[in-house]
Amino acid sequence: MSISSKLPNVGTTIFTTMSKLASDCGAINLSQGFPGFDCDPVLVELVTKHMKAGLNQYAPMSGVPILREQIAVKTKLVHSVDLNSETEVTVVSGATEAIYAAVTAVVKQGDEVILFDPAYDCYAPAIELNGGKPVYVPLETPDFSVNWDKVKAAISEKTRLIMVNTPHNPSGYVWTSEDINTLVEFVENKDILIVSDEVYEHITFDGRKHLSLLTHLVLRERTFVCGSFGKTFHVTGWKIGYCLAPPKLTEEFRKIHQFLTFSSATPLQYALADYLSDPSHYLTLPDFYQKKRDLFCEGLKNTRFEFSPAQGSFFQMVSYANLSEESDYELAVRLTKEIGVASIPISVFFSNKKDYKILRFCFAKKDSDLIAALDKLQRFEL
């Protein structure tokens, strides 16, 4: 039987590949972006409580009301934006579903979608599966900021959507107010929508503030904002995320969502609603992760890698361009096998797989694992 693949160029992701290699080699896994520590035991107790209370059947398609309300409360507290929890907040099975459903809701055959390159690997497949064409705009190295002249040149009559990611994965770049205002200039009075991946919204450093696209009125009326409780509360395996969008966009979003997963795990939603009632659970995250970033960066100073501390996310990029011509993939594999530290080669994030000799390390791990990994990296000779 012959099958014509809809994604002929897609294979096993680098995250799966490197995590398996790390497991096979007994390496410290600083590759895949998941916390290397458990969530707050209170969350586990809350899930158990709601399971025992019999809340184990289908949740409403849009999410349990109390969780949607708590998301709206959080949005008001953090961003000073008022949301209608009934018509503008949808709970989904992870941010990846949110991104896919948002793209599917608005992208049609022949539409062009602007992606900032390098980009997280789920964006382009979602666009292509819906008949759209990714249009890549390269970010500026070494800080991976946006070159707005290149964005302007990329916009055409066919541009339907722009994909935004702040804080950015893999670089950690955090959008500025200038970025927000320039984007407004480019989309105002045009039929261009936006999907904003803001899963690291609570993980910014050195006093930087995450500026959600919701905070500007022009952007709010045309943007799907995708968030993740997995990233925020160290429960990536729960796969609970959400999408914030104005009523008309939410209506179209839910049409897709109801035929993807329909609803998400009920007791987990009630537990997260309870947990969100204490804002300290997310307002303290910047300090929590900055300590880990600083620990990791301080140790990197004793290696020969070059780097600038990440502005946000829980990833740190390092350059070895001054040390070797070895490809980033080859070096990532060699580090895993030879010294037992796994990372991600960032060439995989680029549309053309360009190799800038940069590796990405995840520092959302136990301090003991970070210290052990740094000891190995400090003794490694290229």
UniProtKB/TrEMBL annotation:
It comes from the Bacteria. This is Aminotransferase class I/II-fold pyridoxal phosphate-dependent enzyme. One of its GO terms (cellular component) is cytoplasm. Residues 28-372 form the Aminotransferase class I/classII large domain. Belongs to the class-I pyridoxal-phosphate-dependent aminotransferase family. Its cofactor is pyridoxal 5'-phosphate. Keywords: Aminotransferase, Pyridoxal phosphate, Transferase. InterPro entries: Aminotransferase_I/II_large, Kynurenine-oxoglutarate_AT, PyrdxlP-dep_Trfase, PyrdxlP-dep_Trfase_major, PyrdxlP-dep_Trfase_small. One of its GO terms (molecular function) is kynurenine-oxoglutarate transaminase activity.
